[in-house]
Amino acid sequence: AVGIDWGTATFVTIVAEDRAEYLIENPRHFKKHDSQLKKAQRQLSRKKRGSKNRAKAKLKLVSCHERLANQRDDFLHQTSARVVRESRLIATEILNIKAMTAHGGAYKKGLNRSILDTSPGKFFALLEFKAADAGIPYIEIPTRKVKPSQSCSGCGAVAKKALSERVHACACCGLRLDRDVNAARVILNYALTGFVTGREPSSGVEGGVTRSLKHETPPNPHTLVRACEDWVVEVH
């Protein structure tokens, strides 16, 4: 079983039931094609409307956008297929892409572009479809209720973090680890047990929050994920 946390710095962070951690880096497709797109757009704007040269320039711009879209789609299909192939249960969170890309300032504009460039909605739709086709359980946990980015996977304490904070450092239990790894652990723990820590909190434990989640079929606790070396990078 695996828990998956999506992001823009790292495309997805995957945590397995044996606590192994894997990263799939963000390929940043738009950044790679940005200069070509701008050049094609400039050439188009300089051509006279209705001319053959403008028609050629427009086709060139369309071709640049098609190459970008094809590379992005290929990455999403290959990545989702490998995640499904190497897993026995997949746990993710419910993402509200529309809310995340709401209008904002210059910084938010850059962040919105990064979010849309990774196409998280399409990736998780492909992941869910391929998981169903393979007969693999696919669980989406309620983000607002569980708060994977704010909850501690060690004790369940909740603390807000700025987007710039890349390390999870719990003031309650002292757990310190990568922010995305902690979120992926929370997602997996909650999907398997109904608790952000993976176990029912004992009385008196600060930060412990009881949350329930029903499963039609309990997952196999001995299921592990196998990682392909050319696909992910293991983090120690």
Largest β sheet strand count, sense and barrel closure: 6 strands, mixed
Range of strand content: 5-15%
Q: How many domains, as an integer?
A: 1
Shape: elongated
Can you list the strand order of the major beta sheet? 5-4-1-2-3-8
Number of DSSP helical runs: 7
Describe this structure in words.
The chain has helices spanning 29-46, 52-85, 97-100, 106-118, 120-134, 143-146, 179-193, and strands spanning 2-6, 10-16, 21-25, 90-93, 138-141, 167-169, 176-178, 233-234. It is an alpha/beta fold. The strands form two sheets. A six-stranded mixed beta sheet has the order 5-4-1-2-3-8, sandwiched between helices. Strands 6-7 form a two-stranded antiparallel ribbon. α1 packs antiparallel against α2. It is elongated, with a radius of gyration of 21 Å.
Topology (SSEs and partners):
Elements: E1 2-6, E2 10-16, E3 21-25, H1 29-46, H2 52-85, E4 90-93, H3 97-100, H4 106-118, H5 120-134, E5 138-141, H6 143-146, E6 167-169, E7 176-178, H7 179-193, E8 233-234
Parallel strand pairs: 1-4, 4-5
Antiparallel strand pairs: 1-2, 2-3, 3-8, 6-7
Helix pairs in contact: 1-2, 2-5
